[in-house]
Amino acid sequence: MLNSLTASVYGPFRERFHEARADLFMQTVRPVAGATLLDLGGGDGSFASRLVDRVPLEVTVAEPDVTREAARSKGFSVRQIAPGEPLPFADKEFDIVLCNSVIEHATFWAGDRDGSWSERAQRAQLRFAGEIRRVARSYFVQTPHADFPIDAHLWLPGTNWLPHRVVGALVPITDRVWLKKCGVADWRLLRARDMRRFFPDATIVVERTLGLPKSIVAVKALGH
């Protein structure tokens, strides 16, 4: 019941946002037919399929869980990756890396009793960004903006500005009583300055909703 209610509430917004993001990908990356695309954390490949609808691409979906029959049914290859490990691909193996709402989770969460979670998470994100830049000639990396007033993970106002330990304690409660289920508070949200540091050769684009910064995209165009 809750899953169907969540889909009915969020579905139309998600569709609009993702279609606009697919258009942004085409305008900024400028992919050519037949280019190889690595979809990091792409799940069932649903976002990559929006791109393939616009231009034919050779897509590989990379996930920790390789049982992604939905991605295979779209004609995509699927490869397994290990969280926290280097990507199992050669330097510049792909024309494009797509990473949609993943880098904020590249934290490999292990608690923060010692108070250093944010620093460890930041180092993990920096390593992940370095791997993206290593295996790709171009890339499109999107992440929710830390300054958007509604937390993209909890769907609650202001929780993205709380200390991580507070959010970690809040998630088990919201998972019981709220529409959005998170499981583990493994995300560290980013701002434009973080993305500029992670991707120094990128153009930074801020997606806005009602004038508010909803997400950040680091883009390196194909051929640049």
Concise summary:
With 224 residues, the protein is of the alpha/beta class. Helices cover 37% and strands 21% of the residues. Strands 3-2-1-4-5-7-6 form a 7-stranded mixed sheet.
Strand content: 15-25%
- For the record, what is the CATH homologous superfamily label? Vaccinia Virus protein VP39
Order of helices and strands: HEHEHEEHEHHEE
Task: Round the mean pLDDT to the nearest integer and report it.
Answer: 89
Q: Order of strands across the widest beta sheet?
A: 3-2-1-4-5-7-6
Shape: globular
Number of strands: 7
Q: What distance separates the N and C termini?
A: 48 Å
Task: Walk me through the structure.
- This protein has one domain: Vaccinia Virus protein VP39 (Rossmann fold), CATH 3.40.50.150.
- It has 6 helices and 7 strands; from the N terminus they run αβαβαββαβααββ.
- It has helices at 2-29, 46-54, 69-73, 117-135, 164-177, 192-198, and strands at residues 36-40, 58-63, 77-80, 94-100, 136-144, 203-209, 212-220.
- Strand 4 (94-100), helix 4 and strand 5 (136-144) form a beta-alpha-beta unit.
- The longest helix is centred in the first third of the chain and has 28 residues, at 2-29.
- The chain is globular.
